[in-house]
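Curious: why this fold?
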Amino acid sequence: MKNNNWFHSIIIALAIVLAGYFIGNTLVKSKRYERSVQVKGLAEQEVKADLAVWPIQISLTGNNLSTLKTRIEQQKGKVKEFFVKQGFEEEEFNIGVTNIHDTRTDVYNNNAQNFEFRYIAQTDFTIRSNDIEKLQESLSASQELLAEGILISSKNTWQPVQYIYTKLNSIKPAMVEEATKNAREVAEKFARDSGSKVGKIKSARQGIFSISDRDQNTPEIKNVRVVSTIDYFLED
C-alpha cells in the first residue's frame, strides 16, 4: 500500500513539473510574440485647389427707401452683368439677401441722428467656380465696378477668396501607402539598432488627413498631410 502511495506521489510530481515546463515555455513564447515597436509614418503632398468661393457684398446708403430699392436693383443687375461678361455661368454665382439697416434705430450709438444717411443696404453675392484662374482674373477686374459707383467688397477681409481641394479621396490610397512605407522604414531602422527584424503588422491606425494652405501668399496651393501609427512585431 505504501509503495502505491509512493508511486502516485512520483506521478503527481512529474505531472506538476511537466505542467510547469509547458506553462513556462508557453509564456516565454508568448512574450516573444509580444515584442513589438510602434512607429509613425508621414505622407505629404502638394495639390492645387479645384474650387474657389468668393463671397462679396455691395453696399449702398440713402435716406429714401423707395429710391434705395431702385438703386439696389440697378446695382444687382450691373454686378450680374459683370460676372457674365467675365465668363461665369449663371449657376456659378448666387445673389443673396439684401439687408437694410436703419441707423436711427441704433440705441447704442448716440451719434446716429447726425449721420448723413439714414439707411445702409448690403446685398450678398457668392461666386463659386472650379475655374480658379478665371476667378482670380475677375478679382482684379472688379475695380471696373468701382468706376461705375458700385461699392463692392469681400465679406471676409482676412480671406477674400476661399480655396478648396475637393478630390481628397482620389489621393488617399497612394498617401496611405506612402505613410505605411515610411513607417516600415522607421521600424526597420529601429530593429537594426536593437538587433532584431521587423515582422508582421500587429495593429495600424490611420491618422486624420489635414489640408492647409502652403503659405499665406498662395492659398490656392494646398498641403495635404497624414500620419499613420503602426505597431510591428519584432523577431530575433
Notes: The CA atoms of residues 45 and 171 lie 9 Å apart. Helices lie at 2-34, 65-85, 132-141, 143-147, 168-193.
